[in-house]
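Side project, low priority. Logging it here so it doesn't get lost.
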Amino acid sequence: MLASVAMDYVNLVAGVAEEEKHHPDIYITDYRNVRLVLSTHAIGGRLTLPDFVVAAKLDALPVQCSPKWLELQQAKHQPHQKKQDTEQTKE
């Protein structure tokens, strides 16, 4: 299932890339992790306006994360959040 989720996302990315005629490098690892790299190859890999346009459109795409990953992210941020809550209570 996770592999098909990654491929579904890559297909959404491809749709944006085709629409904009500007294509990111796409890497899929561990059958579920997708990494996108934007640059303009014609000028040595520097960033140009089309890279930022595509990036903005890609940011708007829906992303599906695994429940385990979401749980890990929440655990990383909870201790920090509790510390902030405690500091605010002291004030």
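Brief comment: Residues 2-65 form a domain with the Gyrase A; domain 2 fold (CATH 3.30.1360.20).
Revisit when time allows.
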